Amino acid sequence: MNAFPSIAEARSCGPCTLCCRLPDIDYFDKPANEWCAHCVDGKGCSIYNDRPSVCRDFLCLWMTGDALGDEWEPARSKMMVYGQGQQTTVLVDPDFPDAWRADPYFSQLQAWARAAEPQGGYVIVFCRDDVFKV
Ligand code: SF4
Ligand code: SF4
Questions:
Q1: Measuring from each residue's beta carbon to the nearest atom of ligand 1, which residues come in under 6 Å?
Q2: Distance 20 CA to ligand 2 centre (A)
Q3: How many CA atoms lie within 13 A of 48 on its CB side?
Q4: Fewer Cβ atoms within 10 Å of its own Cβ: the N or the C terminal residue of the chain?
Q5: Measured from the CB, is residue 22 less than 6 Å from ligand 2?
Q6: Nearest bound ligand to CA 46?
Q7: Model pLDDT for residues 55-67, shown as the tens digit of each residue
Q8: Average pLDDT, integer, range 71-93
Q9: Which atom of ligand 2 is nearest to the CA of 37?
């Protein structure tokens, strides 16, 4: 994602497993917002050592981007953020559908959108079945 510098302090996923639920994953034929069949509540991935590259290669921007402050920790913000070319994608935990509308999050989403726009970038929020362009 080009709107954010890479790298950052060391962070860890901790108890977060949002990326095993929120995105659709073609490899597993998993729809968005449904748990991966290999995710065990409270324990995480049951096939961790054998998980496919689609899982091994993914890190959300909170894990890699120092532009996302501690408030963006996915387990705390109820959102996961990642880059797809010019698009910054925000997936919202369907159990907390209004999380992205509250500050400090909404103001930051607007700031990201403003910063990305001159380079053709944009910010999209997916929440349940709804899609919003910030
Ligand atoms: S959403 Fe980010 S913090 Fe959460 S498990 Fe995935 S990579 Fe880790
Ligand atoms: S295989 Fe493991 S890491 Fe990959 S989505 Fe499923 S539970 Fe998550």
A1: 13, 16-19, 59-60, 62-63, 74, 80
A2: 5
A3: 6
A4: C
A5: no
A6: 2
A7: 999 999 999 877 7
A8: 96
A9: 6
Q: What is the pLDDT of residue 9?
A: 53
Distance from the Cα of residue 87 to its chain's centroid: 12
5 pLDDT more than 90? no
Size of the chain, expressed as the number of residues it contains: 134
Give the position of tokens 């079945």: 129
> Which among 25, 33, 45 is the best mutation to test ligand 2's pocket, defined by most ligand atoms within 8 Å of the CB?
45
Beta carbons within 8 Å of 134's beta carbon, 6+ residues apart: 109, 110, 112, 113, 122, 123, 124, 125
SS3 state of residue 47? coil
Tell me phi and psi for residue 62, to 5 degrees.
Answer: -65, -30
User: pTM score, two decimals?
Assistant: 0.91
- Give me the chain's average pLDDT, please: 92
